[in-house]
Structures are given as C-alpha cells and as structure tokens.
Amino acid sequence: MQSANLPLPNAVLRFIQGALSMSDDQAGWVFTSYLAASAITLPIAQWLAGRHGLKVVYQAAIAIFVLGLLLTTLATTPLAFVGARIVQGAASGVLAPLSMGIALETLAPARRGKFGAVLTAIVLLGIASGPSIGGWVGEYYGWRSIFYISLPLSAFIFLVVNRLLQEKKAEKSPPFDFFGFGTFTLGMIGLQMLLDRGERLDWFASPEIWLEALACALGLYLFVVHVLTAKVHFVSKGLLKDRNFVLSTLIFFALGFVLLSTMALTSPMLDELLGFPPIMTGSLTIPRGVGLVGAFILMGRVREGLDHRAFVAAGVALVIYANWRMLGYSPLMDWRSVAVAGALQGAGLGVLMPSLGKVAFSTLDPKLRPEGTGFFNLTRVYGSTLGVAVVQLFFFNSTQAMHLALASHLTAYRAAAHSVTASMSLPALAGLNEMITGQAALIAIIDQFKILMWAMLLVSPLVIFLRKPVPTN
C-alpha cells in the first residue's frame, strides 16, 4: 500500500493538472514531495518506536497516512494537493521500516532470513502496479477516487494491529544523532527545493533560491564535518570503510535515480503527448513490473556460492540497453515499443537489486548491517527524489529550446511556411503552436531518457572495483 501510493497518480496526472490548474513544473512535485517527506521520516522511525512504543507509533503513522489520503481528495489548489502528498509521504517513511520490523518479529526465526527479499519484491510490485491501478480506477471513477482505495485497507490494518500487536517499548530512550540527521536533512531538502523551484523563480535572480542554495551548502558541509570529527554520528565510519558497501551504495543511488524517473516520464508521454487513455497508460507499466518482479524471484533461486558481481554487471548492462531502446521512441510508435523497453528495464532492475544487496553486505561487519540496511535504502529514496527533480528540470529547459528551434523554421523567409501561416486564423495558429509544443516535448522526454542512460553508464565502471564477496557469519 505504501509503495503503490507513490506512483498511483501517474496515469491520471493530466486530469489532476486540469482540475487543480497545476502547471507542468508543479506536476513533478506530486512525486518529489512524497519521496522527500518519506526520506526525512524513514531514518527516525526506529527511534520513535523505541521511545514511544512500536504499536502507538505504527497506528499513528496509519492515521496520518489516512489523513493525507483524505486531504488529497479535498484539495482544490496545487499547493493543497502537494501538502497532502507531503503528509502521506511523511507517514509512509515510518510505515515502511516498522512494517518490516513487525513482520520479522512475527515470523519464526527459520523464515526470517529470506523475508528481506520477499518484502523487497512486494515493494517493487507496489511501485510497478500503482500506475496501472490508478489508471484503471481513474478512467472509470475519476482521479479523486484513486486515493479512496487505501482507506478500507488502512482501516483493516489499524484494527488488526490494535487487536493483535503487543506493545513494545525500549527500556531506555535509544540514542540518535539528531545533529547529523538534521544537517543531512537540511542539505538534501535545500537541494530538493533548489531543483524544484529554480526554473519557476529564474534561479539565482530570486532571494528564495539563494536561501535554499545556502541551506544546502551549509547543511551538507556541517554533516561532512560532523561525520569526520564526531565519534558517534548518523552514519557510522565503519560503513564508509567497506569498499563493496560504498560502491554498491553509489550504484544503488543511480538505480533509484532511474527507477521512478522513468515512470514519471513515460506516463505523461503516453497520456498527454501520444493521446493514450489512462487505462492504457497504466496498463503499459505492467510489462515493466512483470519483468522486475519475475527477475527478482528468479534471482532468489540462484545458488549462494556464485559470484554475484557478474549479476550486478548483467543488471547494469540490461538497464542501460533498455534506456537506449527508449531513445527510439517516436509519435508513430505503438504500445509494443514501450512494453518491450519497460520489460527489459524491469528485468535489469530485478537482477540488479538483489545481487547488489548481496555484494554490498557480504563483506560488511555483521554489527553494522542493521545501520547499513537503513542507509542503503535511504540512498535509493534520495536517488529517486533527486532523479525526478533533475529530469523534470531538464525536461522543461529542453522543451523550450526545442520549441524555439522548431518554430524558428516557420518564418516569412520560408515560402512554404509563409504561404500556410499567412492565411491561418488565430485558432489555427494556436493549434499549430500546440503541435510544435508537443513535438518539442517528445524530443525533450527522449533527451531525459538519455540522461537516465548516462546515469547508469557513469556508475557502471564501479562494478570492476567490487571485491569478490566473502560471506560473513
């Protein structure tokens, strides 16, 4: 439920924009606001549970999540809708790690070892199925109804937890590095706001952008100094000393950069530019989900003794190849091109994620694994939120540049263009401008797929420097 609600509005984004008078650059906030809020609350979930009680915190998170769902259905302005998504995301950042903690405590010890892979597959299934669910429901019942889906499920979870889960609270308040967490969060949120708001406010011509840039620089500077000088901090130095963990985390960040950015680009392209109905737009995310979950399940059957570095390399190569195929998208293509590229990318991600996790933790001190797991997953979340922000930013710049380039050919000095445009009415000229804008936007989207391909190409050499995994007990 938590992961499906992230991309749920993807297939009906056009209707949300129309109903709320939301501009194209604000549409990106639908995803980045949810992700950024989730990234803020995710690291403190365990601390909150230890201090106030697991059951209380979990039920509070469900209640806040439901509040966010209701606020999205009541929103009448872009700001109200984004605010509701922030409420949803903040609650989801707590629900994700605590759900895993509750499940691990409930399961028998013999079954806990494989549950991490099962949970990851479920999360991926949610991300992959969210747009198709949203597209189907939005097509027949309107876009607001997509947020009602989770209400009965949330109520059921709340009642089950209230009746069956025993309260658990730490005997003493667990320590937490609030200074390190605060400075890191300040830096990342400053960067997020800088990317999201820069284009709208004409970058450094605006005092707000200067303030956000200073917050980003100050936060990250203080965090780095804190990590290098303090004995106890938000990120253990032991994690940074393990080569496999560091390199795998960088690749995982790039994977997050590609994972949701592709969905944020593909659905608007199909819906707004190519005219696919929402139900079809949502359905075309299914091949990607099938490839992802299918490959992930197959990787679970791989023999433990094999060197997973080869699978990391294969997964990276497959994702790069899938993004290269996306560079061939055109207004004349049918659904098959999108389905094939999506299935290949999904298969690459499904191979890469589990193998990368095994390589990352195979050489890490077992004492550092709980902290490493949290940080490892946090980098994927930040990769996703920054990835969506970056591709949205370059998309608008590329669209404007391509519109200018295409429109420059419609001048009085070109006889064919002049003979047509000279006799056209204003509505016809507006239609011509809309057609040029659509062509420019499609070219710009393809350019963003190129950025995503380069993101994976840049981290691909890191695979060479991974050490052969040596499992630790």
Automatic annotation (TrEMBL):
One of its GO terms (molecular function) is transmembrane transporter activity. It is found in: Membrane. GO terms for cellular component: plasma membrane. It comes from the Bacteria. Residues 1-424 form the Major facilitator superfamily (MFS) profile domain. Coiled coil: none annotated. The keyword Ubl conjugation does not apply. It is a multi-pass membrane protein. Keywords: Membrane, Transmembrane, Transmembrane helix. Its main location: membrane. Pfam families: MFS_1. InterPro entries: MFS (IPR011701), MFS_dom (IPR020846), MFS_trans_sf (IPR036259), Sugar_transporter_CS (IPR005829). Transmembrane segments: none annotated. The keyword Protein transport does not apply. This is Multidrug resistance protein B. It comes from Pseudomonas batumici. The lineage of its organism: Bacteria, Pseudomonadati, Pseudomonadota, Gammaproteobacteria, Pseudomonadales.
